[in-house]
Design goal:
The protein has 253 residues and is α/β, with parallel strands linked by helices. The protein has one domain (9-192, 221-246): 3-Layer(aba) Sandwich (Rossmann fold). Helix content is 45%, strand content 14%. It has a 7-stranded parallel beta sheet, with helices on both faces. Strand 2 (33-37), helix 2 (41-53) and strand 3 (57-61) form a beta-alpha-beta unit. Helix 1 (18-29) packs across helix 8, helix 3 (69-83) packs parallel to helix 4 and helix 4 (106-134) runs parallel beside helix 5. The radius of gyration is 17 Å and the shape is globular. The structure holds nicotinamide-adenine-dinucleotide. Nicotinamide-adenine-dinucleotide binds at residues 13-14, 16-20, 37-40, 43, 64-67, 92-96, 115, 119, 141, 143, 188, 190-191, 193-196. Nicotinamide-adenine-dinucleotide binds next to helix 1, helix 4 and helix 6.
């Protein structure tokens, strides 16, 4: 490893999940001090164990419901109390709810917004003073569904939310420019994770999505973590206000 994040304090959300766990492992191998967070206690703690087993440094807050502003503040406080600063914020956690327009209740619409948009806003706002102090970096997680529609995916709420993340990221980059803060997002295509596992058991659905990739396979969580590392590190020092699509070429046709 090349120690791309040596000594950097990184908050990664959703570290009990698929992409979040891979990011925690990868960033720790690059020398980062990891502050994780998750809703599920066992999943989040398993990631802490995995990082420490490799000799990495990680603390974590669980349960931590990031759709609540108070939990977001507590997570930032944990980072600052433990490591004294925040250099990088990887807003990875989110929960999507899928339905066609006529089936989406007010409650579902609101829940999707809280669990895909509000959590990014609350945590970024809480971390902002520390990111200003460190001239830090924000990596947000959007989705290919923000940029294109799939005829087999009732994703109105999710699409709207993730399009919001791309817009929020661009605005954060603009507001952060005076403080040396960079902000970018990643738009994954279909990645094999906890969140897609059930849906991928439907052979017709899986076949359709697979048929849309140019690379002939679905993505792996590590392949999103690698792009997050690029955006979090100085390798992307001239990249801000943009979105990187990581989809095996799904957007092409
Ligand atoms: N898997 C894909 O195909 C795909 C595609 C596009 C975007 N994404 C995005 O990638 C990110 C990671 O998802 P994943 O696929 O690894 O799924 P995952 O379910 O494995 O991980 C998501 C994690 O976020 C956590 N989380 C959700 N809501 C939370 C909340 N309110 N507070 C705290 N933690 C919360 C969950 O507990 C879980 O650990 C998400 O933002 C998702 O929208 C995934």
């Amino acid at each position: 490893m090349s120690n791309k994040l040596a000594g950097k304090v990184v908050i990664i959300t959703g570290t009990g999940g698929s992409i979040g766990r891979e990011a925690a492992l990868l960033f720790a191998r690059e020398g980062a001090l990891i502050v994780g967070a998750g809703l599920g206690i066992a999943d989040a703690l398993a990631t802490v164990d995995a990082v420490r087993a490799e000799g990495g440094t990680m603390v974590s807050m669980q349960p931590c419901d990031l759709s609540k502003a108070a939990d977001c503040q507590a997570l930032v406080d944990l980072a600052v109390k433990t490591f004294g600063r925040v250099d990088i914020l990887f807003n990875n956690a989110a929960m999507a709810y899928f339905n066609w327009i006529e089936d989406i209740s007010d409650e579902e619409w609101d829940r999707n917004r809280r669990e895909e948009v509000d959590l990014v806003f609350y945590l970024t706002r809480a971390a902002w003073p520390h990111l200003k102090a460190s001239h830090g970096v924000i990596v947000n997680t959007a989705s290919l569904t923000a940029l294109m529609s799939f005829e087999n995916l009732g994703s109105l709420a999710h699409t709207t939310a993730k399009a919001g993340i791309i817009g929020m990221t661009r605005q954060l980059a603009m507001e952060g420019r005076h403080h040396g803060i960079r902000a970018n997002s990643i738009s994954p295509g279909v990645i094999e994770t906890n969140q897609t596992r059930e849906q991928l058991k439907d052979p017709e659905w899986a076949e359709y999505m697979l048929g849309k990739t140019l690379l002939g396979r679905l993505g792996r969580p590590q392949e999103i973590a690698q792009v997050a590392l690029f955006l979090a590190s100085d390798d992307s020092s001239y990249v801000t206000g943009t979105d990187i699509v990581v989809d095996g070429g799904m957007h092409v046709w």
